UniProtKB/TrEMBL annotation:
The lineage of its organism: Bacteria, Pseudomonadati, Campylobacterota, Epsilonproteobacteria, Campylobacterales. GO terms for cellular component: cytoplasm. Its cofactor is Mn(2+). The keyword Metal-binding applies. The gene is leuA. This is 2-isopropylmalate synthase.
């Protein structure tokens, strides 16, 4: 084990998915998993296999499709969870079972209703059982941040003797300050020595997740658990991109320490996760926010023009966020388009390139200037393959500020065109009503977001909807991309409907 290497354990697909409203379907998770592999994360927590058949299936599909990245599944310290985790990750070349139990007095007494020695016994049995499936077992002391250090030593000793190779010390409720977390990590690293890797998993309830993670690294942690864009339960987890860029940019402080992250893939990964979950990072978010490299004040602009380092500590290119350059146009050929895709980090097969190229050409007819972000959106939309059960042929709408708006739509289903029209309270409402009527499936709109993909009056509109169908839980996500916001809304709604119908099948 190289003592200078910081192992990046990404939990976007597990803790990240626990962000309210961030649920993803299997196809979407696979796309993120493949991108995480390009990004170079060491371990990917692909889900919580026992949580639902959907979670199990997503982990299993990911385990089949990724090449070398280690695939982990979370499991409580219960036989049935561990068995589900083992089965789900079985096809992966490299795999890990991550099992946990709470160790803080408040959790043991009120949640688990177990005595400390029962908790230790359960933890040891869980690790032993997990070891019967895989060699690489991680054990987490849930709520380590509020656990007694003497109990942490006792339980960690026991699980290491049972075979755990990584000991994770989560600050589950984001309560600790950097120097407190550093103390805990230092004590535990010295106590455990070379017997296991000390890992941290910090939540952001006090806005300190990244600071706590960096302080932990200085105190001896060699694995950090984090998510893209800082997604995660409540206020989220430590953001991968912030940790990685802090280690890189402040190599003076983290001397010799390194990660294997391909930083040029950070921006593409952030965009993919934002577009799939519909959760955009705030504009002033460090590293990946829209404004992270924008200089507004004249003094700053002047300084940057004279010498970029006057106000820039990171180059946009380092994370693959080249200035939103005007790229290709109507006259660009397939070859230039393919080159651009490679540049932006997409790895598509010929058929996918052809489909994306046709969409690009259609867009060129409608939009004067095509930016990198347009291409990213177009291709991300393209690679998430939702079976096209219903497809929109034509849409015409009229909006009215003193009465009902209307939508008339033609939709293809089973080779037939079905047309209908409806009135609504607003144009989007009319569109969703008419789609419900045609499909004979009533959807309940839970969330609707619209954003402009790039800039200009003719910017592409990206619409994300969350729709509950019948008693289905959780709602299905749909994305729609179009130059026309209402058409994008219709496409998004139909894509949520298609996801639901294909899942039902
Ligand atoms: O926050 C937490 O404690 C967790 C564990 C299950 C690792 O997510
Ligand atoms: Zn967590």
């Amino acid at each position: 084990m190289d003592k200078n290497k910081i192992i990046i354990f990404d939990t976007t697909l597990r803790d990240g998915e626990q962000s309210p409203g961030a649920s993803m379907n299997t196809e979407e998770k696979i796309q993120i998993a493949l991108q995480l592999e390009r990004l170079g994360v060491d371990v990917m927590e692909a889900g919580f296999a026992a949580a639902s058949p959907g979670d199990f299936d997503a982990i299993n599909q990911i385990a089949k499709q990724v090449e070398s990245i280690k695939v982990a599944s979370l499991s409580r310290a219960l036989e049935r969870d561990i068995k589900a985790a083992a089965d789900a990750i079985a096809p992966a070349k490299n795999r890990r079972i991550h099992t946990f139990i709470a160790t803080s007095p408040i959790h043991m007494e009120h949640k688990l209703k177990m005595k400390p020695d029962e908790v230790i016994k359960r933890a040891v049995e869980a690790v032993q059982y997990a070891k019967s499936f895989v060699d690489d077992v991680e054990f987490s002391c849930e709520d380590a941040g509020r656990s007694d250090i003497s109990f942490l030593k006792e339980i960690c000793d026991a699980v290491v003797n049972a075979g755990a190779k990584t000991l994770n010390l989560p600050d589950t409720v984001g309560f600790r300050l950097p120097y407190e977390i550093a103390d805990m990590v230092r004590i535990m690293s010295e106590y455990i020595g070379d017997r296991a890797i000390i890992s941290v998993h910090n939540h952001n309830d006090l806005g300190l997740a990244v600071a706590n993670t960096l302080a932990s690294i200085k105190a001896g942690a060699r694995q950090v658990e984090c998510t893209i864009n800082g997604l995660g339960e409540r206020a989220g987890n430590a953001a991968l991109e912030e940790i990685v860029m802090a280690i890189k940019t402040r190599s003076d402080e983290f001397s010799g320490l390194y990660t294997d992250i391909v930083t040029k893939e950070i921006y593409a990964t952030s965009r993919l996760v934002a577009s799939i979950t519909g959760i955009e990072p705030q504009p002033n978010k460090a590293i990946v926010g829209k404004n992270a490299f924008a200089h507004e004040s004249g003094i700053h602009q002047d300084g940057v023009l004279k010498c970029a380092q006057t106000y820039e500590i990171i180059k946009a290119e380092d994370i693959g966020a080249e200035k939103n350059a005007l790229v290709l146009g109507k006259h660009s050929g397939r070859h230039a388009f393919k080159d651009k895709l490679v540049n932006l980090g997409f790895d598509l097969n010929d058929e996918e390139v052809n489909e994306a190229f046709s969409k690009f050409k259609l867009l060129c007819d409608k939009k004067k200037e095509i930016f990198d972000d347009d291409i990213r959106a177009l291709v991300s939309d393209e690679i998430i393959k939702i079976p096209e059960i219903y497809t929109i042929e034509t849409l015409s709408t009229s909006s009215c500020n003193s009465g009902h708006s209307s939508a008339a739509i033609s939709i293809k289903f089973n080779g037939e065109i079905i047309s209908d029209a409806a009135l609504g309270n607003g144009t989007a409402d009319a569109i969703f009503k008419v789609i419900d009527r045609i499909s004979k499936v009533a959807g309940e709109l839970k969330d609707y977001k619209v954003s402009a993909v790039s800039q200009g009056k003719d910017a592409l509109a990206k619409v994300t909807v969350k729709v509950a169908f019948g008693s289905s839980e959780p709602p299905f996500i749909g994305h729609g991309l179009d130059i026309d916001t209402m058409m994008a809304s219709a496409k998004a709604y139909v894509s949520a409907l298609n996801s639901y119908l294909s899942m039902k099948k």
